[in-house]
Amino acid sequence: MYKKEIEEQLKELQHKLSNLKSNIPNDDVIRINPLIKELEENAVKLKTELYSKLTPTERVQLARHPKRPTTLDYIKYLIKDFIQFHGDRRHLNDHAIIGGVGIFEGIPVTVIGHQKGRGTKDNIKRNFGSAHPEGYRKALRLMKQAEKFNRPILLFIDTPAAYPGIGAEERGQAEAIAFNIYEMFTLKTQMISIITGEGGSGGALGLGIADRVFMLTNTFYSVIPPEGCASILWKDARRSDEAAKALKIDPEIILQFGVIDDIIDEPQCGAHEDHENAANQIRKKLLVTLEELFQYSIEDLLEQRYNKYRKIGQFREN
Question: Domain check: are 67 and 173 in the same one?
Answer without folding.
Answer: yes
